[in-house]
Amino acid sequence: MNTIGFIGLGVMGGPMAANLLRKGYAVTVYNRTPGRTEELEKLGADVAASIPETVRSADVVISMISNDQAIEQIYYGENGVLAALKPGTTVIDSSTISPALARRLANDVAAQFCDFMDAPVTGSKPAAIEGTLLFMVGGSKTTVAAHRELLLAMGKEVIHVGDSGSGAVAKVAHNTIVGINAAGLIEGMAIAAKGGLDASSFLRIVQSGGAASKQADLKGNKIIDHDFSVQFSLDLMLKDLKLSAALTDGLGVSTPMLEAAKSLFQIGQASGYGELDLAALARVYEEWIGMRIGNVAAAPSSSAEEELAAASSAAEYISEKERRKKARLSLEIPVMLSIYQWLQEGSFSGQSLPGYIRDVSEDGLQISSASPLEKDMFVIVHLPPEAGLPPMTARIIRIEKENGMFKYGCLLTALSLYQRIQLKEYIDSKLPD
């Protein structure tokens, strides 16, 4: 039976190493962050003080690391895996990384007369604990076949998807669907909640109908209970969606749903929920709808502090929304307006005018200018550089004149969700206390 060197003992790696130990494998473990080896020691693991110590004694090296940057450090650092490999070792990386990096690792491991498999997994923390992970594996058929039994000690199925890098492609494509499904589930539950439906009853409908999904099973009750303990973090979900965006850009694949999901998880990260479970994206929607999706009283898995903070956040959101409704707060943020008009000859004429943002709404802006413009005209609004926002396209839908100034109600177009939240934060920073 092979001797295993296991590097990376986080949410997934720790349970995977534990299952190997329970199946009788000799396992030496290493983690960059101390304090994650105690339970594994009780199961019989040897704890290494360094990567070279882990690698030199192993027939098979398994890594489960968070991202490309960490893999670069673990493998290519001065005391990294590649520097310590002995010929004949098999290297299995189960991290979710870019296909390009997986292929580079395969080439560099082969140069050391060793075998490599990129073998990312699906199933998240519960499956890692239960030993029911699915491995999607890139590498030679011979190498995969020789290590199938080892992988099945940590999972229920091994699918060989192609040459080196193919496992990484499969995982990125798979997690694109996961992110889109999760966002769709949360959005649907937000609609139901705002419409006055009981969240648990609606979730039962989802699970029994055409909207049924693994995400509904895994995340539905977590959303309702505000249990955002980590099975798979929001940060990691966003990281995987970014990997997918980079891959699809290179492949030339149009991915509008990927871009929408990525923007939503960027908002979740910017809102401070990155280290929570990806189900915490629900908090973003709760801020938007001004209420909890689930029953406030039904939150046994969350701490009292978390519930108080969530209730406070919702109350602040509602209070701010009502404050805007009751009193149109006075703003005077200077902007430049680019005005473009169509000429019959088939070209555009344009000019730039000074203006001000006077008010904001969920869908648009009220801007003012001394210059008369026309309804349905499109303008480009350039905010001050400090806003960190690109020029925004807006269509004039309403015109008022007051004290020699024209006030224009403008509907924003082609502005991503992430940019909308940036705009809101910038406007809020300019509101009077």
From TrEMBL:
Residues 165-285 form the 3-hydroxyisobutyrate dehydrogenase-like NAD-binding domain. It comes from the Bacteria. Pfam families: NAD_binding_11, NAD_binding_2, PilZ. Residues 3-162 form the 6-phosphogluconate dehydrogenase NADP-binding domain. GO terms for biological process: organic acid catabolic process. PROSITE patterns: 3_HYDROXYISOBUT_DH. Residues 322-428 form the PilZ domain. One of its GO terms (molecular function) is NAD binding. SUPFAM superfamilies: 6-phosphogluconate dehydrogenase C-terminal domain-like, NAD(P)-binding Rossmann-fold domains, PilZ domain-like. Belongs to the HIBADH-related family. PANTHER family: 3-HYDROXYISOBUTYRATE DEHYDROGENASE-LIKE 1, MITOCHONDRIAL-RELATED (PTHR43060). This is Tartronate semialdehyde reductase.
